[in-house]
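PROTEIN DESIGN WORKSHEET
SECTION A - STRUCTURE
LENGTH: 372
TOKENS:
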């Protein structure tokens, strides 16, 4: 358990796992205004599927993203569509009120700023989940906030949010056994050292720093899995560095595990990373993880035991860490085992879902007591 937690938050975090993962009797409305691809969106779907397996009754209001909707319907989770637009969107609140009126949830769980802003107060407890340092003006009508790192919870408190109305519940990655992607899938020679990184191609992810590090490791190839606005700049940088023939950018992967399992080293080079759920993907693949000491990875990784931490925006340090692991397979195996152990301890589906169910029960119980 991380030392950064306050005693109250730490106690609640530990208690969550002890709760039986039985969600029967809980009625949950979830609202999401996200895109069709992204870390928060993937976690939303995984959590909805996992809660359904515990017996939680759910209704979801979201935009019409067919891939996500298909998974939710397969899990037996009903979905209603809404725009989640800007200032001229007069329909989304009405749709949420209508769904809530018919479903009568005890809890509404909203994701990020727009969904929270557009989820009105009602006859339910509004819990907002944040995975970033968002402006809390959009959350003032919420009853409770969930942050997925200790530093986010402390940010809420620094911004004036009552500590007793904030909880730490991190993310999980689902066990997804399957084959390892062959090198030939992305036209990569057999036997070359392979680095794998994944995420939205955004400046915060610092994939430019990773490319500069790859240029300092002449033998290594890179699979950069993701899509986003930085693609043209990253492709140009790879050409300028003379490493384009060693870099593969195959686009967004709904499941990074087949590629991650092919890696010799899994790299997370972010400048700004509130959590770094992709670290969990590296651990799940049982690959050694090298990450920058940004906010989330610094909490997740115990340097030298479950991964390696290097300074932000330091290509030489990143390259040195990677080269060290490529030259020392035994250490790479030990770090991979340490990451897998950390994942099993605190970031499994059972642990995280247990935290959510414990929170929901506590909030429902408190609300009942207050009505008496």
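SECTION B - SEQUENCE
RESIDUE ASSIGNMENT:
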């Amino acid at each position: 358990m991380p030392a950064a937690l306050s005693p109250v938050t730490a106690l609640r975090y530990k208690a969550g796992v002890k709760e039986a993962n039985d969600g029967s009797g809980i009625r949950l409305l979830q609202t999401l205004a996200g895109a069709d691809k992204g870390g928060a969106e993937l976690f939303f779907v995984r959590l909805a599927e996992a809660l359904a397996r515990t017996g939680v009754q759910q209704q979801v209001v979201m935009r019409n993203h067919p891939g996500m909707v298909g998974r939710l319907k397969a899990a037996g989770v009903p979905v209603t569509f809404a725009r989640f637009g800007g200032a001229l969107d007069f329909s989304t609140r009405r749709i949420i009120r209508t769904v809530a009126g018919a479903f009568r949830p005890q809890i509404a769980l909203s994701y990020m700023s727009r969904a929270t802003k557009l989820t009105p107060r009602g006859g339910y407890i509004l819990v907002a989940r944040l995975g970033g340092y968002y402006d809390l003006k959009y959350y003032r009508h919420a009853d409770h906030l969930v942050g997925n790192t200790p530093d986010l919870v402390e940010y809420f408190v620094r911004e004036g949010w009552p500590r007793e109305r904030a909880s730490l519940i991190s993310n999980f990655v689902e066990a997804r056994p399957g084959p390892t992607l062959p090198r030939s899938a992305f036209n990569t020679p057999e036997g070359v050292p392979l680095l794998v990184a994944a995420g939205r191609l955004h400046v915060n992810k610092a994939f430019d720093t990773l490319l500069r590090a790859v240029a300092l490791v002449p033998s290594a190839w890179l699979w950069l899995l993701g899509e986003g606005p930085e693609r043209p700049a990253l492709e140009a940088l790879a050409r300028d560095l003379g490493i384009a023939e060693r870099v593969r950018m195959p686009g967004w992967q709904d499941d990074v595990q087949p590629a991650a399992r092919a890696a010799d080293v899994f790299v997370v080079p972010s400048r700004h990373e509130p959590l770094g759920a992709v670290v969990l993907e590296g651990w799940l693949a049982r690959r050694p993880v090298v990450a920058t000491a940004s906010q989330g990875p610094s909490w997740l990784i115990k340097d030298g035991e479950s991964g390696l931490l290097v300074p932000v925006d330091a290509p030489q340090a990143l390259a040195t860490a990677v080269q060290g692991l490529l030259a020392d397979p035994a250490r790479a195996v030990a770090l991979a085992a340490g990451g897998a152990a950390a994942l099993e301890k605190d970031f499994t589906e059972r642990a995280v879902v247990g935290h959510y169910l414990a929170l929901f029960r506590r909030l429902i119980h408190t609300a009942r007591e207050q009505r008496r």
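SECTION C - NOTES
The longest strand covers residues 27-32.
Residues 349-371 form the longest helix (23 residues).
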